[in-house]
Design goal:
This is FAD-dependent monooxygenase. By secondary structure, the chain is α/β, with parallel strands linked by helices. The chain has a single domain (about 5-175, about 265-375), classed as FAD/NAD(P)-binding domain, CATH 3.50.50. It has 12 helices and 19 strands. Strand 15 and strand 16 (about 215-220) form a beta hairpin. It binds flavin-adenine dinucleotide (FAD).
Length: about 400
């Protein structure tokens, strides 16, 4: 089965979805509301499950070129600098760290020219192709600004945690503030090993990224959302001034205007990710706490599973049912786990229990615990995307 899809949103999830459709011989138009499709100036890591999904999309090699192996899950420290666990020289690193813009560019460059339309903000969605067709049997229509409409066989809503499409079709499901906030930045300090430092009320994460830079994130508690500071870098520097090097040095080396401050939210669990000819994907479906580094990775998995279902099932409806059945349990379990991890690292009592547990754990057991074959999220394998058969 082939067809035409509209993808709302040109973030990592939307581009991965378009690329997955391209792999199975579908056509897609990605509608992105901004003028330049891109990603915020920060970093991220991807784990083996997402890297396998990228391989299925045909871009693993390109991703590995712009990714840097990181031991952030192996080097656990306390603010004093003491190691709770330490990666050994030569240990294989399961995670690759990226500048977000680099991973985004890998996906964008793999798409056929003209598939992404910018300055295209979707404002509403309707089942059916034209006026009077509201059954969804014939397709789906979106309205963009200026009264423009576009119809297709399928709509993939990859428009992020505040998804317009979800707000219209699932009006009761809302993002939730998780009582935490994060500062992110990128500094030009080469060759820093990946690490995670567990401190009072929060943690500081470091990943090396390409071109001699390091990405950092400081995640901590906040009583309410939307608290902002005149000098965000000064604020975060003050909070970690007594932490071990290179933490204060990293914050100091980050240009003031490059420090990003965002609140941590996830999404109430949805009962389903599909509605007529509409499928939610990525953060629009299952925005999660960042503590397992899985949000974007799960969106890439979504893309591959959806395309495999479209290629394998006799109808779009059957494919969407299969997508829903496969993705909902895994993504919601991952989101629950991430929220639990977040609570563990920021609540004082839970953090003390966690650090005591990690400290008392033999290094070999810790390494086994973070090894690919014992991690249920990382072990995931994507379905195979069949190449479209060429007509003779
Ligand atoms: C602090 C932090 C650290 C994180 N670290 C990691 C990590 O290490 N690894 C990882 O895998 N994930 C991580 N994540 C999660 C990750 O950032 C998200 O899960 C991921 O970016 C979601 O991608 P998406 O494409 O679904 O949505 P988004 O990235 O939100 O993209 C949505 C796109 O849709 C566009 N859009 C929105 N509305 C409309 C509209 N109406 N019409 C047209 N276009 C529209 C937007 O402009 C945007 O381009 C982290 C998140 C946070 C907050």
């Amino acid at each position: 089965m082939t067809g035409q899809a509209i993808v709302v949103g040109g973030g990592i999830g939307g581009l991965a979805a378009a690329l997955a459709l391209h792999r199975i011989g579908w056509r897609a138009t990605v509608l992105e509301r901004t003028s330049e499709p891109g990603e915020i100036g920060a970093g991220m890591s991807q784990s083996p499950n997402a890297l396998r999904a990228l391989a299925e999309l045909g871009v693993e090699t390109q991703a590995r070129i712009v990714g840097v192996p990181t031991h952030a899950t192996g080097n656990l420290r306390l603010p004093s600098g003491r190691y709770l666990q330490r990666a050994r020289p030569g240990d294989p690193a399961a995670l690759l760290a990226f500048h977000r813009a680099d991973l985004h560019r890998v996906l964008l460059e793999a798409l056929p020219t003209g598939w992404v339309r910018t300055d295209a903000e979707v404002t509403a969605v309707r089942q059916g192709r034209g006026a009077g067709d509201d059954k969804g049997g014939g397709g789906v229509t979106v309205e963009c600004g200026g009264g423009t409409e576009l119809s297709a066989d399928l709509l993939i809503a990859a428009d992020g945690i505040h998804s317009v499409v979800r707000r219209q079709l699932w009006p009761d499901t809302l993002p939730r503030f998780l009582g935490r906030t994060a500062w992110l930045g990128i500094a030009e300090i080469p060759d820093l090993p990946g690490s995670m430092t567990l401190g009072p009320g929060g943690y500081f994460l470091i990943h090396p990224i390409t071109r001699g830079r390091a990405y950092w994130a400081y995640v901590t508690t906040a009583e309410e959302p939307s608290i902002r500071y005149d000098q965000e870098r000064t604020e975060v520097a003050g909070r970690v001034q007594d932490w071990h090097e290179p933490i204060p040095q990293l914050v100091e080396a980050t240009p003031v205007e490059a420090v990003i401050h965002i609140d941590i939210r996830d999404l109430e669990p949805l009962p389903t990710y599909i509605h007529g000819r509409v499928a939610l994907l990525g953060d629009a479906a299952h925005a999660m706490s960042p503590d397992r580094g899985q949000g974007a990775g799960q969106s890439i998995e979504d893309a591959v599973v959806l395309a495999a279902a479209l290629a394998g099932e006799p109808s779009i409806e059957a494919a969407l049912r299969r997508y829903d059945a496969e993705r909902l349990p895994r993504t919601q379990a991952t989101a629950r786990g991430a929220a639990t991890d977040g609570r563990r690292t920021t609540s004082r009592a839970a953090r003390l229990a966690l650090t005591t547990m990690i400290r008392s754990m033999p290094a070999s057991l810790w390494r086994k615990g973070i090894a690919v074959d014992s991690n249920p999220i990382w072990r995931w394998r994507p379905p195979h995307l069949p190449s479209p058969t060429c007509p003779h």
